[in-house]
What does this fold into?
Amino acid sequence: MNIGTRVPMTDGPPKVTGQAIYADDLRLPNMLYGKILRSPHAHARIISINTSKAERLPGVMGVVTGKDAPAKYGILPIGHDETAFSIDRVRYVGDEVAAVCATSEQIAEEALELIEVEYEILPAFVTPEEAMGCEDESLWLHHDRKRNIEKQYHHHFGDVEKGFQEALDSGGAVRFDKYYNPRVTHVPMEPHACVANWEHEGKVTLWTSTQTPHYVHRTLAVVLDMPMSSIRVIKPFVGGGFGGKSETFTHEVAACLLAKKTCRPVKFNFTREEVFYAHRGRPEQYVELKTGVAKDGRITAVEAKVVQDGGAYCSYGVVTILYSGALIAALYDIPNIKFDGYRVLTNKPACGPMRGHGTVGVRFGFESQLDMLAAEIGMDAGELRLKNKLKPNTITVNDLRVTSYGYDKCIEKVMEASDWRNKRSKMPYGKGVGMAGSHYVSGAANSIIRSKLPHSTVSIKIDYDGGVTVYTGAAEIGQGTETIHAQIVAEEMGIELSRIRIVAADSALTPVDLGSYSSRVTFMAGNAAKEAARDIKMQLFRAAAELLGESPEHLVARDEKIFPRDEPHRSITYQEALLACIEQGGTLIAKGTYTPPPESQGGSFRGAGVGPGVAYSYAAQVAEVTVDPETGLFTVDKIWAAHDCGRALNLLTVEGQVEGSVWMGLGQAVAEEQIFENGKTMNPGLLEYKSASSLESPPIETFIVETIDPEGPFGAKEAGEGSLAATIPAVANAIYDAIGVRINDLPLSPERILKAIEEQKKRS
Amino acid sequence: MNIGTRVPMTDGPPKVTGQAIYADDLRLPNMLYGKILRSPHAHARIISINTSKAERLPGVMGVVTGKDAPAKYGILPIGHDETAFSIDRVRYVGDEVAAVCATSEQIAEEALELIEVEYEILPAFVTPEEAMGCEDESLWLHHDRKRNIEKQYHHHFGDVEKGFQEALDSGGAVRFDKYYNPRVTHVPMEPHACVANWEHEGKVTLWTSTQTPHYVHRTLAVVLDMPMSSIRVIKPFVGGGFGGKSETFTHEVAACLLAKKTCRPVKFNFTREEVFYAHRGRPEQYVELKTGVAKDGRITAVEAKVVQDGGAYCSYGVVTILYSGALIAALYDIPNIKFDGYRVLTNKPACGPMRGHGTVGVRFGFESQLDMLAAEIGMDAGELRLKNKLKPNTITVNDLRVTSYGYDKCIEKVMEASDWRNKRSKMPYGKGVGMAGSHYVSGAANSIIRSKLPHSTVSIKIDYDGGVTVYTGAAEIGQGTETIHAQIVAEEMGIELSRIRIVAADSALTPVDLGSYSSRVTFMAGNAAKEAARDIKMQLFRAAAELLGESPEHLVARDEKIFPRDEPHRSITYQEALLACIEQGGTLIAKGTYTPPPESQGGSFRGAGVGPGVAYSYAAQVAEVTVDPETGLFTVDKIWAAHDCGRALNLLTVEGQVEGSVWMGLGQAVAEEQIFENGKTMNPGLLEYKSASSLESPPIETFIVETIDPEGPFGAKEAGEGSLAATIPAVANAIYDAIGVRINDLPLSPERILKAIEEQKKRS
It folds into this structure.
């Protein structure tokens, strides 16, 4: 039994001993170094590119530009608006124009300066308002995106006006508030990096730091105009992604193109500045919320308008804006929801998915507003949340399918642990507690590129040596994927974890898994791994049954033994059964697959364009803060975080994911913000972009709430994203509790607090 | 259709472009370099070893000696007489005493000189005669090998005395001759090399240049005292083996031990001199042959005595001496065979298997003697050989199981092509032609370590990208294994070769195959690959059948299409069938296995201890020579070589194997010989050991004779070894034809020829 215990991550030792090979650790013979020339302009036409001087620089082995890879692509089938390099237009400061490879990074950088690009500068749109206001078609970032609107959604489920009226009629309250979320980014420790190796007979291998090797594989086939079977994509160790490495990037294409051109391996390794250009983080968002609460605390209606500044390309933007509306539901029981969402193109680096994808901006607003509504109707904010709990196995008004539901237990847990009832509104001025909730889905029910293919296949090989090799396409990016695969297989087979070896995310070796995004891996690849392990266990059982004179159905596997249920004394060993099995049919192989159930997919999600998903996780948090009203400086003294992850397969990794989410949310709450001046990123570095370090973490007390999900492997559901969104409003609500001021604009900076205190003073 | 065409080897491009990674090309971070301390004495007791000075040398990171790995091992279960390092006794000049690893090769070498070993020198046995004559038990190389005899066989099938009498009674002839074969060795271009990496949690990975990764894997588990599942053995590119890398060597154990000791990767790369010590080549052999031929040309009886100087350890010696007797049969129809074989231990490097394993020494004698017998009864040597042909599907007198048989066609082919009938005995003095035949088995019917496990499993994975990954444990050592796997799978599935990717010989990734020895891979792994491909094809057929409204049994796959037999216009593409198949059940996986049929195994091989094997290949050759009687110098002007390989799966690689065999045989015929002085190897280098280069190759005209073997994949059988043994006697017989002298001692040097001419003159 390893499930439910504290299992150290299997990839921990190589990481801490330095044996782990990240993309930048790869050294192939004769390897060249690539660099990308980027636009200095936020918006401009390319008149001409002259690379001849660069090509003549000694040590330069190859140069590529837009004409070498003209195919359009993008992660979403409805958002194919990128080319590897800008062909006629650059759309943000940092947009890719050309790439060179040379015998050293220094020479490659020198060569960039020798590439002559003639631009015709165009007016740049740096706010959604400006962009949406542009009637001049020739200036739109993409000609088929009218007034720079990438996508708009207008949903109305139930009847919000009726809901608001009901709230007022009951003596409840209705509030309208505006919230602002700046653009934030993932800041993984490892910058984007890759190595391409052009092989004989027109084949290429790309090692790349990615969360989605399968989608990179598909895109490369299009952009390189090669059959997928001639391309091998391998994900080496990855030093963090958080959503920022979830699609194909220019350097990946460039490495392949340059490797082909030079017949030598080519490496790209981003500078930290380039990571900020590659970005694909959380967009700046303008959120308007109107919420009604009846006198008894029931939420009667929510109306939301969200405008997202998506930057220059679509990326996942259509999903981000959709989720921001759709995921208003499924946390509370809300009968009426109206949503108007706008994803807008601007001349800034493209945004994309970031941990808590789509949910964080609106959740900050909603949980803040709920706090105020609770005060208005004179109800405790925790009690109000409990009042609006959902029932398990519910279909929400907008057709989201909730299976297991542990939000209420999460709330009770943090209320009790934080001594909420004795603290809320009862602490001295300057000290306060705040609560908020959040949730996330265990993967999207539909694959990004629609098909009937399974979302995950896992296969297993066992031979004479007794080692168990698990082949999975799932991408370990630090979240514990490989450990979880190993645990699930060992648990299902009743064998030691040390027997398991994970071979992952290598298109030549491993089955397809859609990738590490949307918190899908434990749930989906986990289910596939469990099925594969069960298949191979049954093979062993059939061989064991002959030896034991039993029927295979009566056997169980535990502690490396196989025995008839309730008769452990009549056991044979795993190794004995294995040998008997191999003698009969050679090396054991098996597979398992996962496809979301039909009821979770497709059409039933009214008007939304994505499936309603599978298995929501739930989180509730209480933050305690101390605010200095003289300076606006504040500290988060402690956070109590409860997370309903279904069944916790590994206590250690679930806690790690919750703590990581809380801390990442906290960074966004208190400090993080990308700053632009005329479209230029002003703080593209770790000194300037204030991502907090672990030294600044408050104590986080984590509570795992287990609601055994009927569809998850051993009952598990997601743990990696759902906790993030709660942290920000919990801190905002705590600041309100401490000093009575409400900050609706992120980050919750001392400046904003001080300004709010001053305004409060003026009003009083 | 790729089978039967000229398919360039799939591993050719990486080899010629330098992309291929051999063991010595591996560079792991923090890697250390290992060196082995070897005995300067042919035979001595070790009184003491003091490594402390070496350990103190700056840069030295670890030292190991015999006490670090005391377990006995050996490739044959009945020959476990080695330890990784000598513990109490050294048995040859070059025997391993200790190993060090250091930050550079230079430091490691310096450290060797600081290791103090006190020896008590013992008398050394340098000839089998001396060794067998020793009655002093305390001096025997291994205490349980009485009078240094490793193994003796005394077989008698039929009645040879009756046979000889029959020959004489018919007016035929009986001859008794002695033949001498010196010790020769493989000289692969790549010296032995390996890298061991100690991983977290007590696991180790060894990359090693080996022909038998599975047996190395098993032995390491014993010697390192670790479970096999904690050991991963990977065969990188291998630069030739020819039998010389078919078991576990000290440097492989040492690398693992030192990696464990230092927690750093450790590399060993042999000097050429060390390759001569590791050796395991063909033993020096003293062959006595008595053969009777009836007046009509029928061979009536053969009596053979063979004494082999096996060197200091058993290695494969028990098999070598057995094969030298057993394989007198199965080429000709011989009713009576008597064999007395002695494998003797001496104080020289251990011998082992070398291309043509066990057959070459006796075949040289037998085919020479047959030439003389033909002359004595006044029959053409070619006709005599044809007279004694076997029938297909024969069990020989010693129970060898012949299935397909194309020796007679081979003889006819080379007789015709060489214009034999107009040349033999008809050319001017100094010019002559000679003929000889040979054969080999397509793998041993019994695995080296007896078990019921299949000899080969091959598995296949196909995913959405349409690429076909073939997992095989088979070891590509330059002979074309991977190409053949790819061809077989592509052919069976009716798809392009370019789709196939071979993943081979990595214990963590691939199923077990017993290794590249005894010419078994095309036959055995090929059959497994074909079965796996058929299984996965049937999966595609079942999906295609639904789309086509047909029964799967009526479908055929060709040119990347699947269609009802005889209705190619009603086709769907491979990719369409694949997608339908993956939609139903995820990534496709399948496996195939090969186990030799029961009738080829075990008990039926009278007294021999190995199975009678599967599928013999046949070869006939004619050599034409020009001898200068003044100097004894001669040139081989041309060789016509015909080889019956069953079905030629790849004309290019079969021809390559035949030419390689001929040339390797030719080297042994004309020049190669290991020279010893008091047990010390006197010519351990490429300058001194005269292995011929390709520049010295005569024209070789190769004829492929196809007898479709009923048990081989597409009818194939072995091609890599069977042609070697014929070359030596063909040249000897040609020299006889040219100048009328008979050389019975190898190599056929000018000195020996000159001496024979002088003796001839004396006699005449």
Notes: Chain B touches chain A through 60 residues (CB under 8 Å). Residues 456-594 of chain B form a domain with the Aldehyde Oxidoreductase; domain 4 fold (CATH 3.30.365.10). Chain B has 19 helices and 30 strands.
